[in-house]
Specification:
This protein is an all-alpha fold. The chain contains 10 helices and no strands. It has one domain: Formate dehydrogenase/DMSO reductase fold (Up-down Bundle). Helix 1 crosses helix 5 and helix 6 runs antiparallel to helix 9. The two termini are 18 Å apart.
Length: 307
């Protein structure tokens, strides 16, 4: 598939913001001492990230002014459910920030924030996992990976913010948790890659074209110029480049942050937490790009040769 950069940014940035909000909510619910200034600032960071993600999600729409209509199919569409849950989550975070600024302790707000974050991860992942004809996405690991990667990035971000703000009580918990979650996210992502590498396509060139010859080779796409099908359902990157992206995101999204987090936790190094965040950001973007690019739409069996 051709990755839409707006969707890549939305799922990456919003996922990290969800992880940050969940981290803050669990810390508050556990009675962890957090300074009012840190909690307020961290919630602002999460809210800005969510708004950036929301804005990016409009980038791939042909008629953005009609985006509200997407919510009308909530009974059957995971996209519609996401469109409903995302604004509700943004509003909850904003309300939580406002009540904390006013000095009010409202425990049900962080509870709702955790529930909405989990629901948003599931809705977003199921947009792709429900597409049975794209085998790379239609698997239980898709929502698992969306959730674990979001928690990993959110915990790394929370640790970096806590290190810079001197929130040692929070850092003592989020640091090791970020390491464990990053390793868990990397392990499940490796499992999904291994599973996808062994996939046998249900459709063949014979079923795509209706030609039953046992040996069938396509020499051209059957037209003199490109079309919507050849542009929007294939990423246009060679296998070698795709392989480099795969190893790149495994290194920067999981391996390098895990090593830096080990250093940070062992040495109580604030700079290591910041470096883990800096290293993970490009890895997460590459991981999400690869998630879309690796998916093979069955129609590409017919349009597999463009020249």
């Amino acid at each position: 598939m051709k990755p839409a950069f707006s969707v890549v940014i939305f799922t990456t940035v919003a996922g990290a913001a969800q992880g940050l909000v969940v981290t803050l909510a669990l810390a508050v619910l556990a009675g962890m001492p957090l300074s009012a200034g840190f909690l307020s600032g961290a919630l602002i960071v999460a809210e800005v990230m969510l708004l950036i993600g929301l804005g990016a999600s409009f980038g791939h729409l042909g008629r953005p002014e009609r985006a509200w209509r997407a919510a009308m199919m909530w009974r059957t569409s995971w996209l519609s459910r996401e469109v409903i849950v995302l604004p509700a989550f943004i509003a909850t975070v904003a309300l939580w920030w406002w009540t904390s600024r006013q000095g009010y302790a409202v425990p049900w707000l962080p509870m709702i924030a955790v529930l909405l974050a989990a629901l948003l991860w599931y809705c977003t992942a199921m947009i792709y996992a429900c597409l049975r004809f794209i085998q790379e996405w239609a698997q239980p690991l898709t929502p698992v990976n969306f959730t674990l990667i979001g928690l990993s990035s959110g915990l790394v971000l929370a640790s970096a913010l806590a290190a810079m703000s001197g929130e040692q009580a929070l850092l003592a918990v989020t640091g090791p948790s970020a390491l464990v979650m990053t390793l868990a996210a990397g392990a499940t992502r490796l499992l999904s890659l291994r599973r996808n590498a062994a996939l046998v396509p249900r459709s063949t060139l014979q079923t795509a074209t209706g030609i039953r010859a046992p040996k069938l080779v396509q020499k051209s796409m059957g037209m003199s110029a490109g079309a919507f099908n050849t542009r929007e359902f294939f990423h246009g990157v060679g296998r070698s480049a795709l392989k480099q992206v795969k190893w790149g995101f495994l290194l920067f999204a999981f391996v390098l942050p895990a090593v830096l987090l080990m250093w940070a936790v062992a040495a109580q190094s604030n700079i290591a937490f910041a470096l883990a965040l800096v290293a993970q950001v490009p890895g997460l973007v590459a991981e999400r790009w690869f998630f879309f690019a690796q998916a093979r739409h069955p129609q590409n069996l017919y349009y597999q040769v463009v020249s």
